[in-house]
Specification:
Elements lengths: L2 H29 L3 H30 L8 E3 L6 E3 L17 E3 L1
Antiparallel strand pairs: 1-2, 1-3
Helix pairs in contact: 1-2
Length: about 100
């Protein structure tokens, strides 16, 4: 499919994950009193919302014919948090040191 179609599909998938799928997983983990699972699902949920926003920005850029902001992306190796420009000192999701983030050019 086209890039626009693929980005639209990615947006839909990410939206489902952070609004429906992970909230249910978090709810079940809490009911099961499984703190590790609850933390893992909560972290994943936060990251999926970030991914959704990144895809949404890409879709808007494609629709307007504009380029996305240029720069490197940095990805947390633990939770998948993704940021543009520079890694944070610590991941705001899982507290992994920013120096551990993987740079993607």
């Amino acid at each position: 499919k086209s890039t626009a179609d693929n980005v639209k599909a990615a947006i839909s998938g990410e939206h489902y994950e952070f609004t429906k799928m992970y909230p249910e997983f978090i709810k079940q983990a809490a009911a099961d009193k499984d703190k590790k699972a609850e933390k893992s699902f909560s972290d994943a949920n936060a990251v999926e919302e970030i991914h959704h926003k990144l895809y949404d920005e890409a879709a808007k850029a494609l629709a307007s014919g504009k380029k996305l902001k240029e720069g490197s992306y940095y990805v947390c190796p633990v939770c998948g948090n993704t940021v543009l420009g520079a890694a944070p000192d610590k991941c705001p999701i899982c507290n992994t040191l920013g120096s551990k983030f993987k740079r993607i050019d």
